[in-house]
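> run fold Gas vesicle protein
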Amino acid sequence: MTTPQAESQTVPQYVYGVTRADATIPDDLAGLEDQPVRVVSHDGLAALTSDLPTGRPLGQRADLMAHQRVLQALVEGGTPVLPFRFGAALADADAVRGELLESNTDRLTEVLDGIDGRIAVRVKGTYDQDAVLREVLTEDPEIAELSARLREVPEEAADAVHFDRVRLGEMIVNALHARRERDGERLLSALAPLAQAVVAHDPARDEDVLDASMLVTEAKRAEFEKAVESLSEEHGDRIRLRMVGPLPPYDFVPEG
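> ok
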């Protein structure tokens, strides 16, 4: 069965992304407001579209989820897709064909060539904070000595060692930061050689050790997944390592 072509009529079209014209699209794929997803084709390319909802602004949670659902259905089916950011729309199917596909055929084809046969995944590593804090308190001699000394101070003398407690806190924070950077670099250096491209994201929380998007070829996929599993087992008592994907390859397509 074939995904319906968008008709040439003046109905604003919401655009989810671009794939190849011969790509397999699920027949029952639904987009915003459960509108059927159609394709607008030109010269080997296909834009995935549906009628743009009218009478209200975009941005509801259901809209965002529908946008992601369409793209996720494609990548999970092994279809290369150049994902568009939420909110892309054009005047009608003719505008999609002319302004998007015809005007950018070479560029869109080049981007699709760069992601075809590859999957995008996100790898995240998170500390078990209690386990890592125990490491810091026992493995750093200066911190261990100061911590032990402060534990012996009676409660009535706590004010006298206030600045020592502040110093201990700063030392622990610095040690955790250094450990996080070191562990993150080790994890990344173990996985990066198996990926074609890597985009490292800044940790969002203190316990985040690694947050990286990686583009992996299908030929390396099994080896990459095994490496993630091995690292997870190696660090399982102190770092929770997980891989999410395949995902729409937002981090590996150019903006604009």
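DSSP finds seven helices and nine strands in the chain.
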